[in-house]
């Protein structure tokens, strides 16, 4: 194969790679089905993980969020519940 043939093959492979990259970038990802846990009972309290997930987007002061973040900090630093 001559030089012109190698350049042609390289251009074709490069064009295909560029096409695939553009299709992946422009095509929106398929929505993932999130399986939310089913909570039975009206007074069921959400667990800490769900509360922290909700609190990531809260922009106003929320006592429940502050308590959840404090519990997460205590757990992260290995502090006991009695210490403050």
What can you tell me about this protein's structure?
Helix content is 56%, strand content 0%. The chain is built from 3 helices and no strands. Helix 2 (48-55) crosses helix 3. The model has no long low-confidence stretch (mean pLDDT 80).
| Sheet/helix structural class | mainly alpha
Distance between the termini: 76 Å
Mean pLDDT: 80
Largest sheet: none
Low-confidence stretches: none
Helix content: 55-70%
Net shape: elongated
Whole-angstrom Rg: 26 Å
As an assembly, this protein is: single chain
Query: Which series of helices and strands comes N to C?
Result: HHH
- Tally of contiguous helical segments: 3
Range of strand content: under 5%
Would you count the extended β strands for me?
Answer: 0
Summarize the structure in short.
It contains three helices and no strands. It is an all-alpha fold.
Top keywords for this entry?
84 residues, mainly alpha
What does the secondary structure layout of this molecule look like, with pairings?
Layout: H1 3-26, H2 48-55, H3 63-77
